[in-house]
Amino acid sequence: MIAPQISSVMAIACAPDGQTLALACGSAVLIADAHDGTVRRVLTGHLAMISTMAFSPDGHTLATSADDNTIRLWDATLAEEIAILVPLPDGGHAVVLPDGSYSLDGEAQGRFWWVIGNHRFEVGELDDHVPAVRRLAPGTPIPRPQASRPQR
Question: Name one Pfam family in it (predicted).
């Protein structure tokens, strides 16, 4: 396996098929060919250094954890974010999807909110007014990106 010439790789994960590497470089992830090091995709979204990551058993999902106190799930094939998991201080977590919908497990009041301009809105305040911001029913599965998967 040959990794790209990157000086600040903080973590590496190998897909189960042995064909793909994920390299954490600061707050970004490079998805690279495991044999020649060619970078195929770059995943960005974390606000701080990524410290750990792992592929799912099927190799399509990559989970990353960073110093911004979030865990992000990515479709590694499509280079799209699937969800952001935010831990809540008293236990539980919030899951935020790219379309603005969210789910909660635990008490979020005063700990998780939406910001628009200079205004902060608590959980539930925007649900009836902004269609994209909506709380998902408990147990709703996290949807996968809809685009067709290219062959590796």
Answer: WD40
